[in-house]
Amino acid sequence: QVQLVESGGGLVQPGGSLKLSCTVSGNTLDYETIGWFRQAPGKEREGVSCIHRRDGNSFYASTVRGRFTISRDTVKNTIDLQMNMLKPEDTAVYYCAIKKLRGLTLYSPLFDSWGQGTQVTVSS
Length: 124
Description:
The protein has 124 residues and is mostly beta strands. It is built from no helices and eleven strands.
C-alpha cells in the first residue's frame, strides 16, 4: 500500500510562487504515474499535471501550462509542483494522486490513491 502526504500550501499574493511537495511512502515502486489535482470551493476536481515516475515525461492542463512545473525525485520519493505567476483562480485544495499504470492523463477516476490535500490561497 502507498501513502501520500502533501505539503507546501499557503497564502500567496497574485503573481507570486509556491512549491508543493508530495511525499510517497509505503510500497514506493507500486505506481507509475503521479498526478496533481485541485478542487476549488463549489467546483469539480480538476487535473493540473502528471508525470511518469520512471522517465519523467509530463503533461499539463492548459490552465497552468507555462506557469507550473512538475518534477520527481526517485530517491526521495517526492513529487514537486512549482507554481509561478499564481492567479486568484488557482486558489484550491491541491491533491496528489498515484496511478499504478503508465499513461499521462488527468482523468481522476484512473488514479488509485490520494493524499489529504493542501490549501493554496492566492489573494492580495
